[in-house]
Design brief:
380 residues, mainly beta, five-stranded antiparallel β-sheet, five-stranded mixed β-sheet, 13% helix, disordered N terminus
Amino acid sequence: MHFLFTKIVLTFTVILLGLAGNVCSQVPPADAPGSQITKGWKTNLEKRSIDLSELMSGGPPKDGIPAIDSPKFVGVSEATKWLNSNEPVISLKVGNEARAYPLQILMWHEIVNDDIKGQPVTVTFCPLCYTAIAFDRRLDGKVLDFGVSGMLRHSDMVMYDRQTESWWQQISGEALVGDLTGKTLSQLPSQIVSFGQFTKAFPEGKVLSRETGHNRAYGSNPYRGYDDLTKTPRLFRGKPDERLRPMEKVIAIELDSISIAYPHTLTRKKRVLYDRIGKTEIVIFHADGAASALDKEKISESKDAGSTGVFIPEIDGQKLTFVYNSNEFVDEQTKSRWNVFGHAIEGKLKGKQLKQIRHGDYFAFAWLVFKPKTEIYTEK
């Protein structure tokens, strides 16, 4: 069994490195006679919102990439033994508890089913799209558990719930096929930040342990060189939106039924960016510190991709304007210092928290294929 799974993982790695030729053209449509993609599923295929031909195999079969269902956590001091300060983690805070999910682990499992202070959550990461998204996995009074289906749609992971075996689009949290078609999971605000930034902000925080029950090369990147502006998306059959380079990272925000993408090339240069989406004024922070998870073979040696946060720039009715200083942010009204989490760490406003706006740092092609009406922010 171990040999079979190892063979599957090696096959998947070869595909992702582009050594298997035109994989897309070799995969039969999902609804073709004799197709293997739907074989063995209990999913209600008659109920769906998409054409099954939009689905393709990503290589491994159902659960070939194993979700983590019983996650273990360690303190930040213990995690420093194997996690470098610049390595990217998904930071998620529920109530007073902050947890970090290192991408060096998530890229091998893609889904963590967790429970934080009684709130069931699913933390997900699709390496091909760089989509790190946390969901509330409660739906209509029931708690769902999610696994990796082995299927992709527009290069994005398709999850499945173990209760009904419905298939879900990871980037949107929407059920596409099965009894739960049309249902959508609630997304939770989360951020990709460096482990060092998480540690400084949440010294009592918890970190997902490497004790996952699986033997993986945690700390190494099987998608070496994928985070490159000159590259093209893998396992993507669509035509990328020509307004941005496909592999450009964007800060994607959907607010008041308006979708806007802010290119990292711009936000990284400006560091602080103000905009209005509908009736809501926002501020974007872009700090240094977090390495890309998909650049060098060893994640800790990868290029700096930075960390971002999106907030409403107001505290107790007072509007604030910020400047970037020494990898932190200073408001011009009180000279208080703020971190990338929107938390005042020094000064008159110490202890205050800016209201967070849910956002994601995704490859442009991934966001734009699902949100084609997205506006692209340009420098004003």
